[in-house]
Amino acid sequence: MTVSGVQWLVTAEVLNGRIGEGHWIEGDRNSEGRGESAEARRPADVPAAAMTDVLTVGRAHRPTDSVDTCSTPPSLMWTQFETNPFPVYARLRRDFPLVRDESLDAWVVSRYADVRAALCDPRLAPPDNTLRTARADHTPLRTVLSAALRNHAPTNLRRTAFGAAEELAWRAAAEIRRCGSTDLVPTFCEALPVQVLTAALGLPSADAPRLRLSCNAAASKPRLACLEPHIAARRSEPGDDLLSTLCAAEIEGRPLTDQEIQRMCAVLLTAGARTTEKALALFLTNLVDHPDAQAAVAEKPDLVHAAWAESLRRDPPTHVVFRRATEAVDLPSGTIPAGATVACLPASANRDPAHFADPDHFDIRRPERDEFAASAENLAFGAGERSCLGAHLARLLGETVSALLHHLPHLRWTDGFTPTPQGLINRSTPRLRVTARP
Ligand code: HEM
Fold first, then answer.
1. How many C-beta neighbours within 10 Å does residue 384 have?
2. pLDDT of residue 372
3. How many angstroms separate the alpha carbon of residue 2 from the centre of ligand 1?
4. Ligand 1 centre and the CA of 324: distance in Å?
5. CA dist 72 → 67, 88, 274 (Å)
C-alpha cells in the first residue's frame, strides 16, 4: 500500500551524523518493504543505507550469521557494530583503511590520518551540512554564528551554567536520598545543555523543556516559529543576549530574516544540546567506570577539563560524519572517487594507536593540550572549516560536572545496572542509573 505525500522527517543524525531533527523530505511511503521504499525515494545526497536506517527505525543492522566475517570487510551495518563498534574499527584501521561499504553505500575511512585529511578537504563536502547551506553560503552563516557564540560564551554563561548544574545536582541528590538511585540522563545530561542554551539566547528558562521537545519532536520544522514574538521584541529593543546578536547580525550587508534567525536557533539547540547531552552521558559513564579518575576530579576540580577532553577523545558521541566527493580526492590510504559518499569515523580515528598511545585506555593525565580549540588533536569536534562552532561552550558545559560530583560523591552504578551505548551515527547510553554516597 502506498501513502502519497507523506513528509519524511530525516534526522541529520543520519544525514551528516550530527544534529538536527528538522529535515523534511517529500516522498511517498510504501508501508510494505520499507527498505526498498527508502532506496527508491532517497535523495541523491543521502547514503542509501543511512536512509534505510531512518525508515526501519532500529532495524538497520544486518545479522552477521550468514556472513563470513573473517574474509569480508566489516560493515557499519553489521549487528556487531551496533553492539560494540570498537573491535570493528580496529579491524578497519588495520586491514581496510579505505574500503567501500556496500551495505552503507559509502566509502569508509577509519585511520586518524585519513579522517583528519577527509574532514579538512573542502572537496569533500557535507551532503547537507549543519548550517544547511551550499559551500558559498556556508562561510557567511558560519561567520555570523561563530561571532555570536564567541560574544556570549563562556564568560557570560559561566554563572548560568554552574547555577543550573548545582540545581540539577541537588535535585538528583534528593532523588537518591528518597529512592536510592537516579537516572542521570534525564536529570542532568538532557536538562543542562538546553537550559544553558535557552539562557544564552535570552529566552525564559521556563521555555527550555518546550524548546528541547520542539527540536526533538517529529513535527518540528527546521526553524522555530515559537521564537517569532521574541525576535520581534529583540528587533525593537535589543538586549545583551544571543538572540539580539543574531537580530543585529548582517550577511552581505543585509540583516538576517526572521526565518534565518529561527533556523539558526534550531541549529544551535539541536547541534548544541543534543550532541552535548550524549557527550555528557559518556563522560559520566567514564567517570563511574573509572573510580580513580572520578576521585581525582572530585578532589581537584581543575582536572575536569582534562577528564572531559579525554572522554571526548575516547568516546565521542559522533561516530560517523558523512561527506560527498565533489571530485576525486587522494587521502593517505587511497583515492576517493568523484561523486562517492564518504563515511568518516572520528571515534575510530580517536582510538588509532598510530596517533594516540594506548588509545583504549581512559587516561585523564595525557599530555595537556587545548582540545576545545580549533587546533584540537582529537577529532570529537570534527576538523577544518566545518568543525564545531560550539566547542568552547561544550567545554564549559562539561566543566559543570565538577559541581555534580561535589553534590553526588562516590557515584557508582546501581546493582545490576550496566550502561549500554546505542546508535550507529551518534552513540551514547540512554540510561545512567546511579547511586552515590549520601
Ligand atoms: C560535546 C559537545 C559537542 C560535540 C562532540 C560536537 C561535535 C561536532 C562535530 C563533530 C561537528 C562537525 C560536523 C561536520 O564536520 O560535519 C560539529 C559542528 C557544529 N557544532 Fe558541535 N559539538 C558539540 C557541541 C556543540 C555546541 C554546544 C554547539 C553550539 C551551541 C555546537 C554547534 C555546532 C555547529 C553550529 C556546527 C556546524 C558548524 C558548520 O557547519 O560550520 N556544537 N559539532
1. 14
2. 87
3. 37
4. 19
5. 8, 12, 34
What is the distance of C-alpha 26 from the center of its chain? 25
Res 124: pLDDT: 95
Per-residue model confidence (pLDDT) at position 181: 97
Query: Ligand 1: which residue has its CA nearest to atom 32?
Result: 390
Q: What is the pLDDT of residue 417?
A: 97
What is the residue with the minimal CA distance to atom 2 of ligand 1? 276
Name the residue of 275, 277, 314, 425 to mutate for ligand 1: max ligand atoms within 8 A of Cβ: 275
Q: pLDDT at position 52, please?
A: 36
Q: Measured over all CA atoms, what is the biggest interatomic distance in the chain, rounded to whole angstroms?
A: 66
Structure confidence at residue 285 (pLDDT): 98
> How many angstroms separate the alpha carbon of residue 370 from the centre of ligand 1?
16
The pLDDT of residue 141 is 76
Residue type, 308: W
Residue with the nearest Cα to atom 30 of ligand 1? 272
Sign of CA dihedral 240, 241, 243, 249: positive
In the prediction, which pLDDT does 196 show? 93
**Residues flanking ligand 1, CB < 6 Å:** 16, 18, 119, 126, 129-131, 142, 145, 197, 267-268, 271-272, 275-276, 279, 316-318, 321, 380-382, 386-390, 393-394
Question: What single string gives the DSSP state of each residue in 166-213?
Answer: HHHHHHHHHHHHHHS-EEHIIIIITHHHHHHHHHHHT--GGGHHHHHH
**Closest protein CA for atom 6 of ligand 1:** 381
Which structural domains are found in the chain, ordered by start? Answer: 2-56 (no CATH), 124-435 (1.10.630.10)
pLDDT in tens, 177-201: 999 999 999 999 999 999 999 999 9
Residue numbers of the chain with a pLDDT score lower than 50: 1-61, 129, 132, 218-220
90: cell is 580496529
